[in-house]
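Long-time lurker, first post. I've been practising inverse folding by hand and with some scripts of my own, and I keep getting stuck on stretches where the structure tokens seem ambiguous. Below is the full token string for one chain I'm working on. Before anyone asks, I'm not after the true native sequence, just a reasonable design that respects the backbone. If someone could post their per-position residues I'd love to compare against what I wrote down in my notebook.
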């Protein structure tokens, strides 16, 4: 597995002065707005209906 992914900017103020936090895996600190936040990978999205066209139901 590669190194941990790093955010490019703060999701709150847009500043780029980010540093890893000691709060845990995926935790970051913004030294621009002094907020702490955490990133978490949830998984991959799957295609709707396995990529098949959407079925139409007339009522």
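-- Answer (accepted) --
I ran through it position by position. Result:
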């Amino acid at each position: 597995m590669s190194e941990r992914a790093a955010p490019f900017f703060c999701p709150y103020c847009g500043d780029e002065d980010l540093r890893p936090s000691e709060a845990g895996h995926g935790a970051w600190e913004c030294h621009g707005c002094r907020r702490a936040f955490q990133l978490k990978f949830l998984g991959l999205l799957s295609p709707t209906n396995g990529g098949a066209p959407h079925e139409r139901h007339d009522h």
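A couple of notes from the structure itself: Strands lie at 18-20, 27-30, 36-38. The radius of gyration is 19 Å. Happy to go over any region you disagree with.
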